[in-house]
DNA sequence: TGCATATTATTTGTCGACAAGAGAAGTGGC
DNA sequence: GCCACTTCTCTTGTCGACAAATAATATGCA
């Protein structure tokens, strides 16, 4: 209950620069969780009335999302959620594996005690999601876990690329999450523990090796899923 | 001379969606060439009257520049050109060297004939700048040369990170460009030629090795320059 | 019926104006 | 003279409205 703050006309009820962030965060989550699947049209006026604000802050959020490649804008015509292209999958995997390796190694090199706490927190959240068999939570917490490792590496350049790759990965995994009820999640938990141990021990070589193995594990999983999907379609 | 197009009130004289790109490109160049040095204030209204347009397209360009980290905005207060931090220099070098290596290797792997043409064009421009002893042109054409190699590698994720790093590098080099009258530029030309040969021969290992050597060369150069600068200050 | 052209509809891009925040400057009390 | 408070100023954030561009639709003609 606010202490009688300015009972003026129509309660602003939101601080000045906050609108953009709200729209950005929510839209980003909806895109990454495929609530807004690739190709979904983004209508500015619709969003404006949904968030009860003008088109200006909406547009700013959209510009930022476009800068990260999450949406694409056809000039003068329309805006929509970008498709994840299966053509350049190899490039995506190359970048993902390399960033797993590099960030794990740098984390082992530069970690501080508080980094380990943050990493272990994320790992606990991931383990909880696995126990609960909550696939969406698994995907999100797994990405958060690896982002925390990257943070411990303290290289903002790698971090921003890695974040982008993990985002894209969230969309891929969300697309095929049905198979997440198999034995792999528990294996991921164990591999995560091994990575934490190597980072805690400052064993850079081992951390890099584990990062690579974990990444290639994930790549194989996604490839299996996509191939499985294609086989299903061919079987028709 | 336009063929009598719409002699209405105040000739628009610029196409609809073009304003943002003009502002973005020009501002970006001015930042990278240190015409706008780090810390320079960015005033929206001033830019608006400079480009004869409203603040809206200006703001959109600024949002995109902020997304790339070239400017920073203090909420509700001011916007200015971001400082290049000498604290995280090690992280910058790590990322730069790795991207040199990766893009050179990928270029050797995926290059097509037209890529080689583009790379050789950029190399010719760089060599011309060296002959002319035009330091600013050297810096820009060198970055363009390596961007072309990255393009040939066909990995958009690496390319975007590498572009960002090369931009940042342009600012660093521009800061210390006085020493560019020594023997290094010609050595760079030769090293570039060797890289082109390896990429043309599809020798991935050699391309990666040369990319690494070239990158470490540049890192050493920048480190020498910065140390030299610091030593000068200490000598006082 | 089929095609070229004109019209409409819808969405984006741009504009000018206003209001909110945050610092700077000014003011009063001790 | 110094500190707390108020006022002012300046920049940014937000708004509603209008204009341009494009796709969809309608119209006319063969």
From TrEMBL, chains A, B:
Coiled coil: none annotated. It comes from the Bacteria. SUPFAM superfamilies: GntR ligand-binding domain-like, Winged helix' DNA-binding domain. Residues 17-84 form the HTH gntR-type domain. This is AsnC family transcriptional regulator. Keywords: DNA-binding, Transcription, Transcription regulation. It comes from Bosea thiooxidans. InterPro entries: GntR_C (IPR011711), TF_FadR/GntR_C (IPR008920), Tscrpt_reg_HTH_GntR (IPR000524), WH-like_DNA-bd_sf (IPR036388), WH_DNA-bd_sf (IPR036390). GO terms for molecular function: DNA binding; DNA-binding transcription factor activity.
